[in-house]
Amino acid sequence: MKYQELYDELTSGPVSRALPRRALRLLRDIAAGAFAITAVRHPLGFVCLPVERSGEHGVCVHLWSADLPSVATTTSEIHCHSWDLISYVLYGQVRNELAAVADSGARATHQVFEVVSEGDVDSIRPTGRIVTYTPGASAVYGAGQVYTLRAGVFHRSVIPEGTDTATIALGSGRKGTADLSLGPVGTRSHRVVRRHCDDEETARAARLAAEHLARI
Question: pTM of the prediction?
Fold first, then answer.
């Protein structure tokens, strides 16, 4: 599954019913060890299967499930990307909730952090910007639906409790933007090491997703 072919398919009208079948084949191949793909426990609470990385473009499969290993964020789920996102929901449900962020002083609820990634290490640094956050507009997306998000837009992805969900995420880097996260006022600079799953955990994650997708 290549970025350009997926981009063309997801931005040119109705998505072919063949896409979930292609994803199912990929997941089964990963589960069987046919691809050298290692799952990563993402700090935002999902498991990421990195399918393709090519320059500023990337394709990943994101999996949310109580049956998969996860880690907790050290800041919050509210963040913005340095890249444009196109996301296709394979199964389950995602609520994309935009965030209204305004510079503030005494009434501040959060501070803004820049996340600088080098390999598996995320350096999380306060920017000095103090803000007030309130939830903004939201939309819910289910299996077969596509949503997009431009770089620099604060948001969070909410998965209904008890609902297993998988998406195909396409990212395209945008110059002049940064990966940012909102966190508690007073939190200091720190580093987070992204944890890789072992071969068994990677295969299990892919197999679990394939089983869900096969039932659709």
Answer: 0.94
